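Practice problem: predict the structure.
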Amino acid sequence: MGLIDWLKGRRAPLEDSRLRGWRAAWAHAASAGGSHGIVQLAAELDAFGLSEDDVEIEREMLEALRDREALSAKVRSAGLPIVETGHRVVRGEPCHYSAPASMPDEPGQPAGRLLFTSTRAIFVGGPDGLAAAWHSISEAGHIERDLVLTRNGRDRIYRFRCNAYGDALRAAFIAGELLARRRPPGSL
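Answer:
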């Protein structure tokens, strides 16, 4: 049992199989939206009887769902949030989202700040940065801590790694709202 066994993963700590199932249920709840499932996920996590250290990430994931649902309720009642930012790239446009992120698929994996205005998604970081108008984006989604924006025609995706699950869910929700607002009523 040396280096070869370690490389094969035999010495890796065993993950509780219940957590894999829980994460799959979380991903389904995160994709479905709405508050259904949050109470059940919390109860399941508590029923596992694992130490808080063993479920720290899952607690963060659960809190991200709760935060997104609170944001959804606020957006329904008061509209998209306005975030104060001093970034000059925003150029006086209302900013609806701002959080640190990186682009793990790009050379050098640049880190910086992801901002959403009503007209574009902006990444300030790395040598080039990025600005993509919402009309050039066809869909927004998330995979765990990553926000994924797909360009029209699916010729390019932009993947942003957020620092927290909450940031990724918030970004995907706000991006989805901004995309929905640019589409004519009744179109899909």
